[in-house]
Amino acid sequence: MTSIGTGYDLSVSTYSPDGRVFQVEYAQKAVDNSGTAIGLRVKGGVVLAVEKIKHSRLLVPNSNKRIMTAGKHIGVASAGWMSDTRHLVKRTRDEAHNYHDIYKTNAPAKIIAERMGMYVQAYTLYSAVRPFGVSTILACIDEDGPQLYMIEPSGQYVGYRGCAAGKGKQAAKTEIEKLNLEELTVREAVKEAARIIYAAHDDAKDKLFELELSWICEESNNLHTHVPQAVLEEAIEYAEKALNEDDDEMEDDEE
Amino acid sequence: MTTLKPGEVNLGTTIMAVKFDGGVVIAADSRTSTGTYVANRVTDKLTKVEERIYCCRSGSAADTQAVADIVKYHLDLYTSQHDEMPTVKVAASLFQEICYQNKNNLSAWIIVAGWDKQTGGDVFEIPIGGSLHRPEFAIAGSGSSYISGFCDKSYRPGMSKEECIEFAKNAVGLAITRDGSSGGVIRLAVITKDGVERQVVYGNELPTQYTG
Questions:
Q1: Quick check: helix, strand or coil at residue B18?
Q2: Which of B84, B116, B117, B132 is the best residue to mutate to test the A interface, defined by the most A CB atoms within 10 Å of its own CB?
Q3: Would you state the pLDDT for residue A251?
Q4: CA dist list (Å): A9 to A4, A24, A134, A227
Q5: Which of A36, A140, A175, A225 has the fewest Cβ atoms nearer than 10 Å?
Q6: Nearest CB to B90: which of A103, A111, A114?
Q7: Contact: A103, B96; criterion CB under 8 Å
Q8: Do the chains contact at B82 and A143, CB–CB below 8 Å?
Q9: Is the CB of residue A85 less than 8 Å from the CB of residue A64?
Q10: By the 8 A CB rule, do A214 and A48 touch?
């Protein structure tokens, strides 16, 4: 569904006659071209998962992480330009740190999300800069419990119980909606997140990918960390099994 | 202890705050002095910085008023930005930031006390120099030195609201008797989730003391 801006899309400081800012929409396209990232908020915590598409077999496993920590209780997963993400996360770290310097207490999720949203939005005002080509998924546990936000290239940010960004987001969202997020435990959510990433992955488009999983929960002492190796392996096993079962079902149908 | 400029107005003072289950009781005398002259004998040293957060001011009147005004501004901004009331801890942290960063230019010994949804009643003390302390009850000001022993002996954890009020009245009353820089009336405020009740205790209503 590409639309050509024809003249109104040359700079982000220009509206089109039908009220759109094309550069921001194009930034969203950059996000849609990237590997899928999802976030799940359940009662006991938040889980982030990313489909890390590997462009070469020479890449060292577990390197080039796409899930970053911005303040011990804040996790950020992203879809889109990783270089833009790193810049945004650096800013988020500074904001979280500054907040703590003044108020001597951890920044609540809604404040972090707001600061990120405001920062991203600022880059949609001036023709001298381009908008951020990332959708960031923010996971945090604060006084109000587990929180999940997604900040889009326009600067808009919304709170979610489950969200997805990147090329497999439609497939992922469909799967997420089927989950009963109110009832899942964090351990179960980790496995479901892995399954959804594997399900949303399109083998035809990119053969090699690596799953990256992180969480904030009681088991991680309410700190954002990548899940322990054992948990990761268990999740991958669950995801692969679910995928194979689907394939088996398909084979039966063909008969 | 005080490094006031010549002629500067001193809050001399006895101030205190006591935590109970459900809120805090704060109390202060009402004397402001410039040397031996009592500039104001009905001062209100219990200053609101947010709906359920007060500070008790002692030291330089000008310094403490200025700092309280700045903190009040910041807490107002906090409430707008966060869409919820700040905690007493946040207010105390702001006081500390200002008192510490400007320690060379300020003469302020402040008690911050109030109620918030997270903790209930909370008391913080920021002495000269800008350190932050979180005791169950706090006493400050020139008159506080005369009642340290009394307070340490009388205080029991888990006192009720009424017991805390009596404790505060007794303590401030005794300090007023012995400290020349403290006097006038005793102003009290009880801060709970339901609001702030203020009262004034006049000289003739003080708990009994031995006067010789």
A1: strand
A2: B84
A3: 61
A4: 8, 9, 19, 42
A5: A225
A6: A103
A7: no
A8: no
A9: no
A10: yes
The 10 Å Cβ neighbour count of residue B135 is 14
How is residue B15 written in tokens?
Answer: 């101030």
Instruction: Determine the Cα–Cα distance for residues A131 and A119; give it in Å rounded to an integer.
Output: 10
**Residue tagged active-site, from B13, B14, B47, B87:** B13
Please state whether the predicted TM-score (pTM) of the whole model is above 0.95: no
CA B136 to chain centre: 14
Q: Tokens for A15?
A: 């509206």
* Prediction ipTM score: 0.82
Residues near B212 by Cβ (< 8 Å), separated by ≥ 6? Answer: none
Residue B1 pLDDT greater than 50, yes or no: no
d(CA A241, CA A222): 30
Q: Which DSSP state fits B146? A: G
Q: Mutate one of B85, B93, B101 to test the A interface: name it (highest A CB count within 10 A).
A: B93
Q: Which of A202, A220, A85, A87 is nearest to A146 (CA)?
A: A220
- A104:B82 CB<8 A: no
CA distance A19 to chain B (A): 29
A11: left (phi over 0), alpha (psi -120 to 50) or beta: beta
Overall average pLDDT of the B130-146 stretch: 96
H helices within chain B, ranges in order? Answer: 61-82, 88-101, 148-154, 161-178
Is the Cβ of A105 closer than 8 Å to some Cβ of chain B?
yes
pLDDT in tens, A98-112: 999 999 999 999 999
Q: Which of A251-255, B88-92, B115-119, B165-169 has the lowest mean pLDDT?
A: A251-255
Q: CA-CA distance, B172 to B68, in Å (whole number)? A: 22
Q: Which of A110, A242, A247 is nearest to A179 (CA)?
A: A242
List B111's β-bridge partners, or say none.
B56, B125
HEC assignment per residue over chain A: CCCCCCCCCCCCCCCCCCCCCHHHHHHHHHHHCCCCEEEEEECCEEEEEEEEECCCCCCCCCCCCCEEECCCCEEEEEEECHHHHHHHHHHHHHHHHHHHHHHCCCCCHHHHHHHHHHHHHHCCCCCCCCCCCEEEEEEEEECCEEEEEEECCCCCEEECCEEEECCCHHHHHHHHHHCCCCCCCHHHHHHHHHHHHHHHCCCCCCCCEEEEEEEEEHHHCCCCEECCHHHHHHHHHHHHHHHHHHHHHHHHHHC
Q: Extract the tokens encoding A21.
A: 């800012």
Ranges of residues in chain A with a pLDDT under 70 are: 1-5, 249-255
In the predicted model, is pLDDT for residue B137 greater than 60? yes
Averaged pLDDT of chain B: 94
